[in-house]
Amino acid sequence: MSDNLITVTSVDNLLTVEEITNLFTVDESGNPQLINVTEPPVLLTVREETVNLLSVAAQGPSGTNGTNGTNGIDGTSGDYELLTNRPPLSVVYEFLNSSIIEFDHNMRKYPAIRVEDSAGAVWYGQETFPNLNRVKIVFTVSFSGRIILS
Predict the structure, then answer these.
(1) Does residue 103 contact residue 135 with C-beta atoms inside 8 Å?
(2) What's the CA gap between 106 and 52, in Å, rounded?
(3) Separation CA 87–CA 9 (nearest Å)
(4) How many angstroms separate the CA atoms of 103 and 128, rounded?
(5) CA 50 to each of CA 19, 53, 54: distance values in angstroms, whole numbers, following the listed order
(6) No. of H helices and E strands in the chain?
(7) What is the model's pTM?
(8) Dihedral sign for Cα atoms in the order 47, 52, 55, 61
(9) Cα–Cα distance for residue pair 87/80, rounded to 1 Å
(10) HSE, side-chain direction, 13 A CA sphere, residue 118
(11) Which parts of the chain register pLDDT below 70?
(12) What CA–CA distance (Å, rounded) separates 138 from 119?
């Protein structure tokens, strides 16, 4: 028997058995051999066929491209200036030996404020907001540090 040829033979070219207990096969000499089935299959279909196993060839050329999908709908117009010119999410302002610190943060809001000296200790002062984009903080003594706005 060759490695690339498989032959399956049955009676009357088609045999369908719903419940079987014994099967016969033919050995290489052509003699029938009994196969005892302990758990019969629910359905067995045998057809007479000759199947040649083929080797895998090189991949063929690519197929043609499919058609393009439809375009989506246009989005609504918005305030482009506002989207491209957004205020910062946080601001860090460093200062040297000052007791009054006033600066523009341009956050367009009254931000939360944290003041730390150069050693990392937290300080509290009198905070005022002349407008949405400016803050003024007054301390009782002068020191150096940074102000974190968020």
Answers:
(1) yes
(2) 79
(3) 82
(4) 11
(5) 26, 10, 13
(6) 1, 11
(7) 0.45
(8) negative
(9) 14
(10) 7
(11) 1-25, 34-56, 75-85
(12) 19
